[in-house]
Amino acid sequence: MALPQVKQSALEARLEGLSLPQTGAWLGMAQSDALTRLNAMGLPAPRDEYWRFTNPTSLTAPVPTPAALFSPQDEAPMFDALDRLKLVFVDGVFDADASDEIALEGLEIERLAEAGQADIHWAKDIYGKLEERGQDPVQRPLATLNTAFATDGVLIRATGKVSKPVQLVYLHQDENSDAILHHVIRVEEGAELTILENGPAAARFNKVMEVDVADRAEFHHVRTQGRDHERRAATHIFARLGAESLFKSFTMTANGVMTRNEVVIELTGDNANAHVAGACMGDGDFHHDDTVFITHDAVNCESRQVFKKVLRNGATGVFQGKILVQPGAQKTDGYQISQSLLLDENAQFLAKPELEIYADDVACSHGSTSGAIDETALFYLQSRGIPHAEATDLLTLAFLAEAIEEISSEEIADDIRDRLEAWLLRRRG
Amino acid sequence: MAQVEETQVKEGVDQETVDAVKSINTYKYGWETDIEMEYAPKGVNPDIVRLISDKNDEPEWMTEWRLAAFARWEKMDEPDWSMLKYPTPDFQDQYYYARPKSMEEKPKSLDEVDPKLLATYEKLGIPLKEQMILAGVEGAEDMPAEGRKVAVDAVFDSVSVGTTFQDELKKAGVIFCSISEAIKEHPELVKKYLGTVVPVTDNFYATLNSAVFSDGSFVYVPPGVRCPMELSTYFRINAENTGQFERTLIIADKGSYVSYLEGCTAPQRDTAQLHAAVVEIIIEEDAEVKYSTVQNWYPGDENGKGGIYNFVTKRADCRGDRSKVMWTQVETGSAVTWKYPSCILRGDESQGEFYSIAITNNYQQADTGTKMIHLGKDTKSRIVSKGISAGKSQNVYRGLVSMHPRAQNGRNYTQCDSLLIGDKCGAHTVPYIEIKNNSARVEHEATTSKVDDDQLFYCRARGMDEEEAVALVVNGFCKEVLQALPMEFAMEAQQLVAISLEGSVG
C-alpha cells in the first residue's frame, strides 16, 4: 500500500541528507533491504497510536535541533572506577586512540564498517534480522532507518565468561551532530557478557542494539544516558533469548529534552528470564518515554518490567509496556510495574500498560500508580527531626529503589544510587 | 456438525465455573416472531434519513440535524484500533427501518397493541402489563410489592411498541417515553440536551446513529424527584438484515435519582446483524443515575456464524457538583462487542463507577471498558472489570483514566481481572493512564493476589490456609459486583455468581 502523501514527503525529506547504503557485501544487502522496508512503512507521525504520548517530530526531522555541550564537572565520569574494556565514540564515530586495545579472552570485537565487507560473518544472521522480527505487530520505523543508514557500531561476540565488562562511551562534542549507531551482540551458549553504556552521544542520537543470547548464556546491561539538557535520543534494543538464558537491562536517565527508549524482547527458549528496568529523573523541559514489548513464546519463562519515574517542574514521563503471551507459552510468569512520583503539580505521567494473553496457565500481573509524595511518611520523618527537603529526597530514593535493585552488580548499583542522590541534592539549592 | 472439543482447563478453575459459563452461552432467545413487517428500502442515503425522520413525524430541525450527521458520516472511516477482527459490514446491504405493520397507527394504549408483539415480550419474560414484578425472577415473590415496580419501554426493531406505567410516572413528574414521542412532545428538552454528551461528530458509529436512529427511550427526572420505580428498556431485534439504531437520552435534574435497566436479545440467524446505539446521560447537581445493562444479543453459533455486531457509544456527563453515575454491565451476547460506557466528571466532587463482567465463548470477541475523564476537583472514580473468556473467544478490557490539571485531588482505583477457560482463547488488557496533576492518585491493578490484607489476615487467623482465604475474599468480591445489579437482572446474575475467579490472570 502506498504511503499517505504527508508520510511520503516526510520520509523523503529525512532521507535527503543521508548517503545510500552500499550494496555488495552482506551488510550492504541488509541495509538496502532495510531501506525497502522503511519506504513501505514511512516515519512515525504524531498521530500514530504508538506515538500517542510522545511527539516524534524532532526525532524524524531532516536535521537535528542543535544541542549545547554540557560537561558534568561535578562528578567523576561514569564507570571510571571499574576494571573494564573501554570503547569510545565521539558524536557517533569510533575513536580508536581514546579506546582500549581490544584483546580480551572469550571476546571478539569488530567495527561494523570493516566486518561488513567480509564474505561470511556471524553477524549476518542477526544484523537487521532481530530488528525486522520486532516490527510485528507494531512498526518501529526509526529502528529500520537505523539499520539502513548506520555508519558505525561494533559487533561483539562473547564465546566464554568474559572477565570484565565492555564499556561503550558516547561523547558529544559537536552541537549539531546527528549520530546513527548500530551494535550487534551475540552471547554464545553458556557465555556471559556485561555491556555498560554511558554518555549523551550527539545532539540527536539514533541507536539500535541487537542482542542474541544463546541457550544458557547471560547478558547484563547497564546504561546511563548523560545529564545533557538538550540532547535527543531514540534507542532500540532487540533481544532474542534462548533456553535458560538470562537478560538483564537497566537504564538511568536524568535530564534530556527527548528520550524514547524501546526494548523489544522475544523469549524463544524454555525457562528463559528477562528483566528490564529503568529509573528516570526529570526536571523542567524533560520528556522520557519507555516503550517495552516482551513476547513469551516458550514454556516456563519469566519476565519483569520495573520502571520508576520522578518528575517535577513540567517534566513528562511516558510508559508503554506490553506482555504478549503466545499460545502454548504456558507457565509464563510476567510482571510489570510502572510508577511515577510527581513532585509538583506541573509534572505529567502518561501510561499504557498492556497485557495480551493467549495461554491459560500463566500468572501475569501489572500495576501502575501515580501520585505525589506520601504526606504521612513525610510527616513521620519530619517528626523525627529530618528536615523537609532531606525527607523528600529520602522518600524519592526509596521510591526508585525497586528499579535499582534490578542491577546485577552491587558496585554499580551503589554508584547509581550516589549519583541519583547527588542529582537531588543539586536541585535542593 | 461441529466437532465436540474437550476443553482442557488449568487447575484451580472449578467445574462449577466451567458449567456456568457454558450454560450462559446456550442461547435461549434465538426464536423469531412471525409478524408482517414494513421496511424502508435497503441501504442508507439522505432519502432514507428523510424517510426515517418522516415516519417518526419529526419537526424540520430534527431532520436537518440528522442530515448534517449523515453528511459528516460519509466522510468518516471505520475505526480500526480495537482488537477485533470482523468483515466490514456492507452498510448499503441492510435495512435501516423496519416496523411491524400493526404499528403503523401508533396504539393509544397497551390494550391496542398487536397481541403477537405482546406475546413476544411475554415469552422473553418481559410482560408488557403493569404488573408488580417480572416473571421468572427467583425470590422476587418475597419482595414487598411496593417499590418493585418496573416501567418498561419495549423497542421492537425500529419502533417503540409501548411504555408501561406512564400515568403513574407522570404523577411524579417523571417523563418516560420513546424518544420519537419526546421529540414531538418535549422538543425543548430534546433540543437542549441531544448530542451534548455524545456530539454528532464523536465517532463513526455514533455519527451513523445520529443520522438514522429510529427510536429509543427518553427519561427526564425533574429536580428533587426520586423516580418512584425502576425504568427499563427492552430491545428486541426481530427482522432479518436489519440494523437497529436506538438512541437513549436520560436527564437527571438537580437532586434527582433514577435507576435504569436495559436488556436486549435477537433471533438466531446465519448472517451477522448490526446494532449501533448511542446512550447519553446528563446528571445535574446532587443527582444520581444508575444504569444497568444485561447485553444478551445473539452471539453467533459455535462456528462463529451469525450474531450481532454491537457497536455502542454510552457516555454520562456529571455536569453538576456532587453528581454521581454508576454503570453496571453484564456482557454475555453479541458476536462482536465494541462498547465503552464512559463518565465525564465535570462537577466538583462528582463520582463515576463502572462495574463490568464480560463473558465470551466460541468465536465471540469483546473489546469493552470505560473512560473516566476527571475534570472537576475532588472527583472520584472506580473501575472493576472481570473478563472471562472460553472457547476460541477474545476478551479485551480497554480503558482510559484521565486526570486533567484542574482535577485536584482526583482519585481513581482500577482493577481488572481476567479468567481464561481453555487454552485457545485470549484475554487482554489495554489501559490508558494520563495524569496531569500531582494531587491526583491513580492506581491500576490487575492481580488477584492483591486482596485486602486485613480481610486475608482475618481469614488466616481463623485457620484458613492462604489459598482458601484468597479464594473466599475474591469470590466475595465478585458477588459484590453482581449484587450491584438490580433485582430484575437477578436471573442472569444468579448463574454468574457460580463463576469463581480462582486462577485469574491480570
From TrEMBL, chain A:
Pfam families: SUFBD_core, SufBD_N
UniProt superkingdom: Bacteria
Protein's GO biological process: iron-sulfur cluster assembly
Domain SUF system FeS cluster assembly SufBD core: 173-399
Residue ranges constituting the SUF system FeS cluster assembly SufBD N-terminal domain according to the UniProt record: 32-168
NCBIfam families recorded: sufD
Sequence similarity: Belongs to the iron-sulfur cluster assembly SufBD family.
Protein name per Swiss-Prot or TrEMBL: Protein SufD
The organism of origin for this protein: Actibacterium atlanticum
Lineage: Bacteria, Pseudomonadati, Pseudomonadota, Alphaproteobacteria, Rhodobacterales
Automatic annotation (TrEMBL), chain B:
Domain SUF system FeS cluster assembly SufBD core: 235-477
Pfam family, one: SufBD_N
Record domain SUF system FeS cluster assembly SufBD N-terminal: where: 171-226
GO annotation, biological process: iron-sulfur cluster assembly
Cross-referenced NCBIfam families: PRK11814.1, sufB
Family statement: Belongs to the iron-sulfur cluster assembly SufBD family.
Listed name of the protein: Cysteine desulfurase activator complex subunit SufB
Taxonomic path: Bacteria, Pseudomonadati, Pseudomonadota, Alphaproteobacteria, Rhodobacterales
